[in-house]
Design brief:
Layout lengths: L8 H13 L9 E2 L15 H4 L2 E6 L6 E5 L12 E4 L5 E5 L2 H8 L24 H12 L10 H16 L9
Antiparallel strand pairs: 1-2, 2-3, 3-4, 4-5
């Protein structure tokens, strides 16, 4: 796997899935980008200690928001790092505690809509063309399904977000949410 998309098996599997289904959205607004590519983080801070702690990997919506892994520590399993939303409207917060949680949120098939991240699965009226295939892939690959209520995930995510906000406040000023 020398031509792998990333050093993270879960992202490589998602990239293979994405390549297999072609130019079809499977979760509203989501699309893998070049692993480690610029996500506009330099507009927040150009401090090297800030920039070196993010690994951008995906587009989050159609208007310019991105997802990045936050290197909150030196763990080797990058799939377990928190996922940060780098929003096109000034948002910067932890949206998922790890990639598996993000994948579950993607299964809702909604763009991030507020500080809790996503609409509830039942609130999505129309699904992306590749949604069913994604749900099948997610279940077969990881045994995961969409969360019943994504707002419940906030309880676990809040601890990561609080830690993130404390760290990032060294470099930028965030609005309260």
């Amino acid at each position: 796997m020398s031509e792998a998309y990333s050093p993270i098996l879960a992202l490589n599997l998602l990239k293979e899935f994405e390549d297999r289904i072609g130019a079809v959205y499977y979760s509203e607004g989501f699309e893998l980008r070049e692993y480690g590519a610029d996500a506009g983080l330099h507009t927040w801070s150009e401090h090297p200690d800030f920039l070196s702690r993010f690994i951008p990997f995906a587009q989050a919506n159609h208007s310019g928001s991105d997802y990045a892994l936050w290197r909150c520590d030196d763990r080797t399993d990058l799939a377990t790092l928190p996922v940060v939303l780098v929003g096109d409207e000034g948002q910067l917060y932890v949206i998922a505690r790890n990639l598996m949680e993000l994948f579950q949120l993607l299964a809702i098939d909604s763009e991030p809509v507020d500080d809790f991240g996503f609409l509830a699965a039942g609130d999505v009226e129309e699904h992306s063309d590749g949604h069913h295939e994604f749900l099948t892939w997610l279940n077969q690959s990881f045994g995961l399904e969409p969360p019943e209520d994504p707002h419940v995930l906030w309880t676990g995510r809040k601890k990561s977000d609080d830690r993130f906000r404390a760290w990032v406040s060294q470099f930028v000023e965030l609005d309260d949410h």
